[in-house]
Design a protein that fits this description.
The structure is a single chain. The chain is mostly helical. 58% of the residues lie in helices and 0% in strands. The chain has five helices and no strands. The relative contact order is 0.17.
């Protein structure tokens, strides 16, 4: 019964995920560009407090330190470090996602966008197996976020 309800929840999130993946006329995407930092769907409708802008690759960002369980400057991360950083990121997301607010999801998406930016710079040096692991981690994050949106819509 639990697996059937999980499947139903994932199936209901598909329209949200497909909407988040389709480029719009006002935001054309280039090949390989990911949507990790862009809030989508219902998240845009919720007001969020304004926060001061941060440096894009700050190694002293406490949110990034928490999500990655390490203090690393992503702008200088080596290619062979990235698979482990993605694994740490998704492990933290899996563990804490049930208690996250919309601001927490936005913060996690920002950290994912930093990881993705570095990944795009060094991806050609990674073996195909590592690239597939990273892509599946990216997809899992978007699935978890979409499932949260679907759950919130159902709970209304």
């Amino acid at each position: 019964m639990k697996s059937a309800s999980c499947l139903l929840l994932l199936l209901t999130s598909l329209p949200v995920l497909s909407h988040a993946q389709s480029p719009t006329a006002d935001s054309p995407r280039q090949r390989g560009e990911l949507t990790g930092a862009r809030p989508s769907g219902d998240l845009l409708a919720r007001p969020r407090p304004q926060v001061a802008p941060r440096r894009a690759a700050a190694s002293s960002d406490p949110i990034q330190q928490h999500l990655l369980n390490t203090d690393v400057n992503l702008a200088r991360a080596e290619a062979d470090q990235l698979p482990d950083l993605y694994e740490r990121f998704i492990a933290t997301t899996r563990d804490e996602r049930r208690s996250w607010s919309y601001a927490d999801w936005d913060n996690a998406a920002t950290v994912l966008a930093r990881l993705n930016q570095r990944y795009e710079q060094v991806r050609t040096t990674l073996p195909i197996e590592e690239r597939l692991r990273i892509r599946s981690t990216q997809g899992e994050f978007h699935s978890l976020r979409g499932a949260r949106q679907a759950k919130d819509r159902i709970d209304r």
